[in-house]
Each structure stands twice: as C-alpha cells, then as structure tokens.
Task: structure prediction
Amino acid sequence: MPRNKVPVSLLIAASLLLIFPVAFSQAPKKIKTIVVDAGHGGSKDPGAIGQYENSLRSKEKDVTLAIALKLVEELRKQLPGVNIVPTRVTDIYQDPREKARIANEAKGDLFLCIHADSGPLKQGRRQIGTRMVTRYKVSGKGKKRKRTPYQVEEPVYEYFKLPLTRSGTSVWIFAAHKTSDKLKAIMDGDEGFELEANGVDSIENSIDFSKPENRIIASIYAKRYQERSDLLATMVNDEVETTGRQSLGVSQRQKGIWVLQATNMPAILIETGFINNPEDERYLNSEKGQQELAEAITKAVKRYKEQVESINNKPTANTNQPAVTSNNPADVPDVLEKRPVKDSKVLEVKSNKVKIDLYDDGEIDNDIVSVYFNNTLLVDKRSLTAQAHSFTLNLVPGKTNELILVAENLGSIPPNTALMVISDGTGRHEVRLSADLKNNASIRFELKNNN
Result:
C-alpha cells in the first residue's frame, strides 16, 4: 500500500478529543520492531553493477542482501527483545510500494534500507596496436579530378571504463520538502497509527484526518520522524567512522526514495560503499566488510534505542495543574524583565478573540513553559506534549498585544520549542517559537479588524 504525501496526526485539540482516557494505562514508547530492507533484487532490478575495468562485476542486489542478512542476525543477537523484520531474504524483486507495505503492516518503529552507491564512469582509451588503412589524395579539377590511393598506418585503440575515485559510506534521510509525503504515509496507515501523549502510546483506529486540528498535529509527527531519522543517521555515520572507514556524512535525499517517504516511521538509507570503486567493491564483497558494517549499524541502533526510550520515559510535569492568572503588574516575575525577547513574531489577525493551541514542536522532550499575555500569567509551568493545551486571548484594540513564551527548562533536546496553532475565526496560523533560559520568545498581534 503506497504511503506518501500529506499529514500525521496525534492529538486532541483542546476540549474534545478523548483519544486518551485519563485512566488509560500504557507502556512507555519502546522500539519494538525494526525493518531491514535489502535494496533492489531479482533479475528485474539488479541495482548498480561493477563496470570498471577488472571489476568484480558485483551486483548491488547481492551486496545489499548479504549485508542486510548479517545486520538482521546482529540485531537479533544484540536486541533479543526486538522484532527484526527483513523485507527480503532471497534474491527476489519487490516493488518499493511492497517494501513500504511490509514495513507499515509490521508496525515498524525503524526502517533501515541497505544500498550500495555508484556514479557515472568516465571512459578511458589506450593504444593496442596499429593497422594499415587506405586513404585517397585528390588532385585536379572537374573532369581532370583524380583520386590516388595510398596506405597509412594508424593506431588502434580500445576503450574501457575508469573506476570511481570516490569511496566511503553515506547515510540518507528523506528531504524536508518531502515531509508532506511522509505525512501521507501516516494518514494512509491510520489503522495502526500510534499516538503519544505524556510519554505513553495509544492506538487510535478512527482518526479523522479531515479535521484541521488533526492535520496540524500530524505535521508535528512528520517533523518528529524527520528529526529521529536524522538522529539515527548521525549515529550510524559516527559508528562507521569509528571503524576507520571513510564516512561521508548525513544528507537529505532531494529526489526522493519511495521507501523513505512512504514508511510510517523514522527511516534511513545507508549507501554502504561505491560498487564502482575498486577498494569499496572488494570491501562490500568481503565477509569482514559486510560484518563490520552490520556491527556498526547495530551499535548505532542500540544507541538510538537507548536515547529515544530514555526521552520517552522522562517524568513530565503535572499537566493538570490549573493556569494561574494575575492582573497585578507587581506579580509579574523578573523573568520577563531580565530575559530579553530574542525570537519575536508578528501576526495579523482579524478578530479580537484568538484561540491558541499550544504543543511541543518536533520531539516530545519534556519542554516546560510559562506563557504571559500582556504581562498576565496565563500558563504556569506547563509541560508541552503532542496534546494541545488550549486557551483564548481577548485582544485589546489600539494596544500592543503581546504573548510571551518563557522557557522553564531546556527539555532533553535544547532549546525549548513550541508550536502555537492560532485561530482568529477566519484563518489558522502556525507559529513556531524557540526560547531558552536566557531569552524569551514572543508573538505580537496586530488587530486589523476590531469586531
């Protein structure tokens, strides 16, 4: 089932989405299933082929399968409690949509795609001998024109493909502009979509993605997948580097690869080496090289698993704590005076009544914030999650109406980030703010039509 383009969802906009009953007891988010894909396969899709002179004539499909099988074995050995699902274990062709379907139906928490890189090969030539050829000398004009044959010796060349000079291992994630495709994967796969709130999971089988609040929440999850993919990719790159092998860094796949975009989970693609580079080709075909790559990737996955599960198990502040309000300027804490506003946005609205839905932006990492409006405390030390905390502002005509976000901590992944979904009755706006323990962030509202 293809997955690709639109939004992810998880929440419950303010008052009504009873997706998570308060008494619903759930286990913290765990990495339970990892899908390993051996790129290409079958006679229909051999992938890149070693074509330079004196190459091993390797086929990418064979190299990726050998590495993937060793990776599956290593993951099962080092992560015995995790379900490891290979997309293929033999030389068969699978449409990329089929690979994505396998991963999504397995409810994977990670997708690891194994590939081998290549590139355009330059052509070389060398002389291998000579031969005698007949040429003609033309003399005279008109009817007196005469062609006189003569023999010359010319070189004979043979042509061959030069090997690539580029070598090393690179890691790829889906590009930021492909986020809409990742969102579509989540929406298409909503039957088993996992939602998180306050650090725990829930399965919601009837999410209505037509609702604006759910589409907005979805964007949070797509961004989270992007961030987690980048986190894992960076760890893989680091572990490859420790082997002494050249690591080429983490890149975003601009053209797009279906299995990265269409999988409803963080996904990375590992270009293990260049099949048309002699040293890399020998490495990729060797038992030592294949095992070394499998172990390096496994170490990165273990690090990623420990970090993600640690983040999700962090205790969060009491989100049922009532908001504190004050109309007395003397009650405004020093934090508004001593911390300058570094991240400031200006938003034009058409109504003096504005609804705010406040979320953590990206990774749910126990960010805690306070919110002030016109120097009045509206939200006191609230832990941000993927579940909306909602409130309404009454703008004062003719006055600068400013909402200030104060970071009470830095969360597990600094800085403190928040997504505010703002509705003025005629339109919806997404504003992302970033604050830390030295700087606040703010939105100034410009009222264009006082109702």
Notes: The first helix runs from residue 60 to 78. Confidence is low (pLDDT under 50) at residues 1-28, 189-207, 314-330. The chain has three domains: 33-120+163-312, 123-161, 329-447. Residues 33-120+163-312 form a domain with the Aminopeptidase fold (CATH 3.40.630.40).
